[in-house]
Amino acid sequence: QVQLVESGGGLVQPGGSLRLSCAASRTISSFNNMGWYCQAPGKQREFVASITSGGSTNYADSVKGRATISRDNAKNTVYLQMNSLKPEDTAVYYCKADVVWGSSGFEFWGQGTQVTVSS
Fold it and tell me: How far apart are the first and last CA of the chain?
């Protein structure tokens, strides 16, 4: 089992920045993939960014150039730095971990952190 705890959300003005953190209860160096997703009210959860165990990153078109995902294996933490925030970025942001143990794959989700972009 893996527990993921997100933090760093809050209220920010348009154009501002936030850094979200996702702390894992186990070492993340062996996790295949970790990612961030967001869910706005009335909408489905959607992909934001991901990072593999080798450090390869992927971003949704909506955040390319404005977001940076990174991981600190020593701290078992993944970060999402978001800049130039827009009101449409308002959502609950969730962290996800994809893990392979033996021949089985598992995914774990955190509880989410609210990001509100408003003046």
Answer: 40
